[in-house]
């Protein structure tokens, strides 16, 4: 973990904020190398792919923040594809496990229903890959037919929202921030073409490493803070629109 070089993750590409995504994901283990990590987070091919997208979203909203002796440059997240909770945990259970008890919803008005809950461990890293801070959050997966969406909740947020996040709604005095982008995930040995470099520079794609083949995903991220708890929706290749996510956030905010 500590031997990588962020700056050489994608040589000759523009030094932009979004490169942090590629730099971080370049150091996630690929399928041939993930031995120890696979034992730790029990990833399958599908769940590992999904976790990459989650990490992308996490890093995209990261602002450089002073912590301990250095500055957080990126965040790595790990989780198991085996649910920690198959039923909605109680407020008491969540408070004992995480030190906070977020608002919860079993089913949203648009049909998305609670499927599983997962503990996610996060590490804030400096530019050399040294760990500066750790936290854990709770992810709820909601399904509607074949579609799914993740609601993440945490009491301690590593880093700050970046300028890429835009406030799109204010509800009950709370600001909801949104981000949408196209992520192009490539194999570990992939060589960026000149067109790739142009696409990255223009912002057409955010590049990351970790898939067996080249894949393009549409990622949406909506976040807000209420009563000291940070909430965020992650939707990948979803039919849901920004307005749909905002309405779902309103439902969470309105929970008594």
Q: What is the beta-strand fraction?
A: 35-45%
How many structural domains are formed by the residues? 1
Mean of pLDDT: 75
Element order: H for helix, E for strand: HHHEEEHEEEEEHEEEH
Query: Shape from CA axes?
Result: globular
Terminal CA distance: 43 Å
Q: Count of DSSP helices?
A: 6
Let me know the number of strands. 11
Largest sheet: 9 strands, mixed
Helix content: 10-25%
Which residues sit in consecutive blocks of at least 5 with pLDDT less than 50? 1-69
Short description:
The protein has 256 residues and is of the alpha+beta class.
Tags for this model:
globular; 256 residues; disordered N terminus; alpha+beta; nine-stranded mixed β-sheet
Describe this structure in words.
The chain has helices at 19-25, 35-41, 45-60, 91-98, 194-202, 242-254, and strands at residues 65-67, 70-72, 74-79, 113-125, 131-144, 147-154, 166-171, 174-186, 206-209, 215-226, 229-236. It is of the alpha+beta class. Strands 3, 4, 5, 6, 7, 8, 9, 10 and 11 form a nine-stranded mixed β-sheet that branches. A two-stranded antiparallel ribbon has the order 1-2. Strand 1 and strand 2 (70-72) form a beta hairpin. It is globular, with a radius of gyration of 18 Å. Keywords: Membrane, Transmembrane, Transmembrane helix. The chain crosses the membrane at residues 52-76.
């Amino acid at each position: 973990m500590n031997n990588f070089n962020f700056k050489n993750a994608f040589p000759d590409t523009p030094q932009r904020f979004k490169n942090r995504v590629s730099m971080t994901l370049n150091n996630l283990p690929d399928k041939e190398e993930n031995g120890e990590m696979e034992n730790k987070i029990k990833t399958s091919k599908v769940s590992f792919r999904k976790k990459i997208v989650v990490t992308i979203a996490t890093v995209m909203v990261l602002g450089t923040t002073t912590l301990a002796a250095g500055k957080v440059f990126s965040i790595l997240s790990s989780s198991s594809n085996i649910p920690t909770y198959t039923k909605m945990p109680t407020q008491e259970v969540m408070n004992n496990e995480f030190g906070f008890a977020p608002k919860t919803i079993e089913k949203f008005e648009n049909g998305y229903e609670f499927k599983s809950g997962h503990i996610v461990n996060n590490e804030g890293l400096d530019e050399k890959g040294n760990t500066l801070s750790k936290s854990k959050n709770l992810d709820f997966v909601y399904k509607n037919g074949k579609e799914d969406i993740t609601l993440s909740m945490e009491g301690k947020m590593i880093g700050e929202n970046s300028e890429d996040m835009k406030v799109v709604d204010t509800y009950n005095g709370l600001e909801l921030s949104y981000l949408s982008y196209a992520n192009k995930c490539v194999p570990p040995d992939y060589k960026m073409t000149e067109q790739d470099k142009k696409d990255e520079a223009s912002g057409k794609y955010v590049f990351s490493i970790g898939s067996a083949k080249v894949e393009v995903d549409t990622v949406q991220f909506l976040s807000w803070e209420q009563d000291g708890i940070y909430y965020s929706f992650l939707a990948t290749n979803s039919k849901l629109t920004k307005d749909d996510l905002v309405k779902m956030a309103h439902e969470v905010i309105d929970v008594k």
